[in-house]
Amino acid sequence: MGTTVSLCMIVRNEAQNIRRCLESVAGAVDEIIVVDTGSTDETCQIAREAGARVYRFLWNENFSDARNFSLEQAKGDWILFLDADEELAGESREVLKKLVAEETVEGYFVKIINYIGSEGWTETCPDLVFRLFRNRREYRFRGAIHEQIANVILEKNSNASYRVAENMVIIHYGYLDVQIAEKQKKERNLKLIQKELGQDPDNRLLRYHYGVELFRAERYAEAAEELTRAANGIDPNTIYLPKLLRYIVMAHHYAGQPDRAFHAARLGLRLFPDYADLYYYLGLIDLGLKRYAEASRCFQRAVSMPQQPARYASFAGVRGFRSYFHLGRIAETFLDQDKALEYYMASLRDNPEFTPALESMVRILNPRENPKYTVECLEKAFEFCTPRANLMIGQIFFRQGAYGPALEYLEKGTADGPVPPEIELWKVICLTQQRRYLEALRIIGNFPRDSSLYPLAKFNQLFCFWIHDKKRKVRVISAELCAMGLAEDTERVLGLLLDTLDGKNQHIPETVLGKDGIVLLLDIIKRLLDMNEAGRAERLLSAVNPETLAKYRLKLAQLFYEYGFRERAETILKEHLAANRNAEAHYLLAEIYREKDSFDEAERHYRRALELSQDEPRYYIRLIQLYDDRRGKILQEAVRRYPDIDIFSKLAGEDRAT
User: Fold this and answer.
1) Which residue(s) pair with 125 in the sheet?
2) Per residue in 206-255, pLDDT tens?
3) Which of 248, 300, 314, 529 is the most exposed place for a label (fewest CB within 10 A)?
4) DSSP string spanning 461-529?
5) Residue 636 neighbours by CB distance under 10 Å
6) CA 255 to chain centre
């Protein structure tokens, strides 16, 4: 008879996960032991249907006790233990049989792939975990939480040999946001570890796990302190030391302690000079401090690192899409859009679903002003051949205000299935912005009253009629919206729309808006400017209390500038600068004067921007470019007036050569 394997599990309310887990080991293990600690769902029934022997265990807040109870029931020669939110990767079944046939090995470290994030966006983080070992009576787990057995086996058998299980992989879904929220893992784990530390305060491994749980709970300063205590005096050969050092760096970074994070990363690189994650976080630290050259070098080092050992638990993308994305951001900071596009392309080649890089590319291509060119560029570079891909690019176009291509891709993405209400609402906005009002109103009419998006749909219906000056319909819809119990700010914005219907506002009182009202108003202004309805936008703004608008003048100026209303943007910027010292306002005003070929005014405002913010590369670059343009025009005039003078011809030739 061959070597046998027992799968041992402890579970509680895992009906959503356990079937997937048990199906993954079908044919790979000889028996399944499931110890239930108090499920109230169908967990036990599903386990029995899969052929498991199910036992009850009264939960006593000690994971080791429950694990050891499962070992007592196991009859196999080897123990494999999994959690219900894990599964054995398909190709690992045959590998498992070969591993347990090894006579000189007592246990194996197995590669685990942790999925992290939310359903809409997930990422992976590999690690090594001790999950496969021989079934012997003296081998039992220790620790109330983050229970350990590898060190116990060595205590019982000093000659025990461990290996890394090559080509065997466990997939773990328990760090996905939905899983953590449902199980309240963070609070539970912190409580159990605190209790355990009270009994064993010098347990370094336990303190490491405590620091990690504090980090996951976003208590970063406390996490950094605990993790540093765990690292002090540690054996450099400790298997989890690379992860510990990275967590120290991350904790200091997110706690707003860049100097400490920088020091910890440099110390870590002395021990692990090929650790890509540490270069990546050094890059983030330098980028946050606007040390752009140093940041660029660190990200470049990260992408040049070799394949990372499993014990590093390296985050996905630090040697690829993440670092390339930040290199693109740095290039954009220095107004090098061609180089930025190259880096964003490299990021997407490494991970085609990394939407921040795709969104950055689209922003540079400017689909609102260049829709055809943007679409051509993207379709040459990528294949939008699935509904999900079409929806993704449609959403990006929508966020960039490119409503025509947004509608096209949203429709492609929903052509063969039901359309989510949110996408329907986006379609309504796209149609409205293209003045296809009847189509927009038809979709709005299909929104059920009990939909959470019904008020937004009705608001867009009101907007359609408001644009058409349909006073009666606007008043009826406004009354219906107010009857729903809207926020006071939203009602005030509705009042603005009603009061400005007839295009006159001599007798309109100046409306005071809070932050939420301003956000809604700015969105309406943006949509009006996109529709070339600047007059309507001005009437709305003139009805708002000037003090309310004062702190939003720069945002308003940026909107008017973005949509081509340069003179109005100039006026607003001057009003803003009369009361505020603001580098970005001077910069935008300089851009307007540059377009008007007003060199002296452009130079003055670029210089004022630099005086107020000397660590902003754009201001230097645009001033240099302004001088270059000015020099070129002066030289052209000189050559035109003195075509036979060698010095001018020579200078013009040098310019053409460069």
Assistant:
1) 114
2) 899 999 999 988 999 999 999 999 999 999 999 899 999 999 999 999 99
3) 300
4) HHHHHHHTT-HHHHHHHHHHHHHT---HHHHHHHHHHHHTTTS--TT---B---HHHHHHHHHHHHHHH
5) 13
6) 18
